[in-house]
Amino acid sequence: MSDDTVIKVMNIKKQFRNKVAVNDVSFDIKKGEIFGLLGPNGAGKTTILRMMTTLLRQDAGKVSLNGFDTLTQSRLARQQFSITGQTAAIDQDLTARENLMIFGKLNGLNRTAALSRATELLTDFDLTNSADQTLATFSGGMRRRLDLAISLIGKPTILFLDEPTTGLDPRTRMQMWHAIQKLVAGGSTVLLTTQYLEEADHLADRIALIDHGKMVAMGTPSELKKQVGGMQLRIEVADSQQFDQAQTIAQATLRLPVNVNDRILTVLLDPTSMSQVPHVLQQLQSSKIPISNFAIETPPLDDVFLKMTAGKN
């Protein structure tokens, strides 16, 4: 293992009776990297995560965390990481500060250090005003923020996040993103599973796409988008009353399907239609249709996900 490789997954396999859940999956994760693990429901993501965190023994292959084998050195491997799942593991009868203090002490911090770390995390997760209230008063989003804060109490070198922002409002999700990025800036390494593709696109340095237990693709978000091929035209119409007219112009000029979302038109371009894009803009201007955004860009990660898993479920 190279000095900057923190997690190494080598040819792991897992079968439940006659069903192969994970089939020969391999990847490395480097220090300070956010690595996204994506795939449809039932693709094998959770099984892979359970094997990596010693909760499940693989049938074949090897996983090492900071050089420690998860099968033969499981106790030492477990000391290398923290994990946050989809459900909170916090004491409902205690306050947020008390929960953080307890977990700080469990992570080997003395009372002063635990209090200091708790205060820092309460600030990071916008929980200061509620720090000394019992969790009965907390919303679901506040509980999720506290759960992630607890997983960060010991500044883990490896953090496994299993869909940490599921069900959260956009503001709370942004707070979680900021906290994750701050942890990584401090040298930690993160493996993230998420059902939000824009979250992986925003956070992950690299992404592994899993489908039916197999590795379908791996690379940076930009590299995966290039594998889909083509570029996307994005048109945002300023006046909703002229939206239908803009859609008609785009479709007639490019002769391609036009996707509609609110006041935004998107068209997945092919090589022959690229030369027609300036004509679309000219037609819109001639028709005096105000445009707030007109851009050619790489397609979103959603398109990568759908194309690479299409017809396989």
The level-1 CATH class of the largest domain:
Alpha Beta
Give me the CATH architecture of the largest domain, please: 3-Layer(aba) Sandwich
The biggest beta sheet reads: 6 strands, mixed
Radius of gyration, rounded? 23 Å
CATH topology of the largest domain: Rossmann fold
Can you describe what's shown?
The two termini are about 35 Å apart. The chain has two domains: about 5-225, P-loop containing nucleotide triphosphate hydrolases (Rossmann fold, 3-Layer(aba) Sandwich); about 230-295, Alpha-Beta Plaits (2-Layer Sandwich). The chain is α/β, with parallel strands linked by helices. It has a six-stranded mixed beta sheet with strand order 6-7-8-3-9-10, sandwiched between helices. The chain is built from eleven helices and 14 strands. A hairpin with a 2-residue loop joins strand 4 and strand 5. Pfam families: ABC_tran, DrrA1-3_C.
